[in-house]
Design goal:
about 180 residues, alpha+beta, three-stranded antiparallel sheet, two-stranded parallel ribbon, 6 helices, globular
């Protein structure tokens, strides 16, 4: 921020933008907001200004940006997954929330579409940690650390349809670009 309370690009965000300009990735994941946002997370104008900087990067280089954040205590308690200013939600096209609602199974998560301007909100996918990564495919088996003895059914690969269209198209571009060598 400058002396007038205006949000400026952090050094890290400037480096990220230079990298995006040089490599033009289809997808950029920033973990987390705190690393690149130097403003007050509850100040609406600052949040909107910062998100407009990210939108400009996305537009200029044709890159989809996924911005990770941790929900507030209230956001975890009410299941909304939100934190700080409502503008973190209002100023973006989509919002996903990853939670661990099944306390008996530490490897199970729920990924829910909380907001989508280009698709249906409320859809859920239940990925499972397989020891290396989260997966939703038929290779999902029972959790080795689950305290429950109930059988675990694998999530079908049709769950891929539940991922918002924009993220799918960007992921397809990533696969296509990486297959070119």
């Amino acid at each position: 921020m400058d002396g007038y309370g205006r949000v400026l690009k952090t050094q890290l965000l400037q480096q990220v933008e230079a990298w995006v300009a040089a490599h033009k990735p289809a997808l950029l994941v920033i973990d987390s907001i705190a690393a690149v946002f130097d403003g007050e997370a509850i100040a609406r104008r600052q949040v909107r200004r910062f998100l407009s900087m990210l939108r400009k990067i996305a537009r200029d280089y044709g890159t989809a940006i996924v911005l990770l954040d941790h929900p507030s205590v209230r956001g975890m308690a009410d299941g909304s997954g939100t934190a700080n200013s409502v503008d973190w939600r209002n100023s973006v096209r989509a919002m996903l929330h990853l939670s661990d609602p099944d306390k008996d199974d530490p490897d199970q998560r729920t990924l829910e579409v909380k907001k989508s301007n280009y698709g249906r909100a409320g859809e859920k996918v239940k990925p499972r940690w397989n020891g290396t990564t989260f997966t939703t495919g038929p290779i999902c088996g029972p959790s080795p650390t689950a305290r429950s003895t109930r059988p675990t059914s694998a999530v079908s690969t049709s769950s891929w349809r539940k991922v918002p269209r924009l993220a799918r198209s960007r992921a397809d571009q990533v696969r296509h670009r990486s297959s070119r060598g």
